[in-house]
Amino acid sequence: MEFDTKLIHGGISEDEFTGATSIPIYMASTFHQNKIGESKYEYSRSGNPTREAVEKLIADLEDGTAGFAFSSGSAAINTVFSLFSVGDHIIVGNDVYGGTFRLIDAVLKRFGMTFTVVDTRDLQAVEQAITPQTKAVYLETPTNPLLRVTDIAAIASLAKKHALLSIIDNTFASPYIQKPLNMGVDIVLHSASKYLGGHSDVIAGLVVTKEPDLGEQIGYLQNAIGSILAPQESWLLQRGMKTLGLRMRAHLHNAEAIFDYLNQQPLVNKIYYPGDPENADYAIAKKQMNGFGAMISFELQPGLDPRLFVEKLQVITLAESLGALESLVEVPAIMTHGAIPRETRLKNGITDELIRLSVGVEDITDLLADLAQAFQGIAE
Ligand SMILES: *Cc1c(COP(=O)(O)O)cnc(C)c1O
């Protein structure tokens, strides 16, 4: 089945009992057991039909064998990290999501896990960071907000060589753009609050595995920890996911046009976009991504105030988050990445002038006109 057909007919696409083409919201905590131990569902933390539908769907979309839905992307990440124990060492990409960094730094370190932060584009640096205690490599590609791209297949094979798990947060790409399990990665996870949900109306997380033992371990942890996605949210997430293909094509079309526009705009100093042929990661992006994503970051010329620019935008919404129908803009230095000390932030390339744009699906004419009036406004 092709990807767009899977979105509609993949997973469990109709209700077993009524034939309803939209899986009902099963608001039940427990289920009648005709014979002890023989029922399909027992208790909704362990399994719920509405949640199961979205779990089977994401497993299909990522070409995995088991999917798991959580109350947030952060809950999904925490559950995956619960595979590890005191003394275990994990190599982490150097610009992972701020909340992931906070979880590692403020919580997991207290449980005796250790972490080394590495630019995962540098395979030698990753290999050098491996110790006898290393159990996994965890990364995002493209990254936030500089959209750096790591060679997924190369990392997966390096991990295999050293018997490490490879874990990828696929939030910024979505399975429309890349399927890491097919490149040898062990665990893929998502903040489904972004492209998968797609409508800025649900907080959810998803995990997918291919190897059955690993799937069983994640399932065990999901039930043991209990940060599951509720039936209503599971339904809403599946409803949003059905249009992922339609939305992604519109996102990609608009992103390309905005990149071309920014490229011609003299008030722009630098653009970060994996589809820029001058970008250092372009060849890898072209190799492993189906389209370059719809996130674009750019720097204004030195001295120009990014606050003034984003506040002048009228169609493009000033807000955190990404992957929504509506175009969203933010200033990482004072918003999403404001908690990082300025020196570290600058060292990582996140300047005060940087602006991050999540390109939405509005008519491109309006988006370009909005950008043009904001540039004109700050030039005056
Ligand atoms: C938003 C986000 C998360 C966290 O997900 P929540 O659903 O907000 O908990 C994790 N990783 C990435 C890349 C994100 O963008």
From TrEMBL:
Cofactor(s) essential for the protein: pyridoxal 5'-phosphate
Keyword GTP-binding in annotation: no
Alphabetically ordered keywords of this record: Lyase, Pyridoxal phosphate
Modified-residue entries (N6-(pyridoxal phosphate)lysine), positions: 194
Signal peptide: none
Cellular component terms (Gene Ontology): cytoplasm
One annotated GO molecular function: pyridoxal phosphate binding
Protein name: Cystathionine beta-lyase
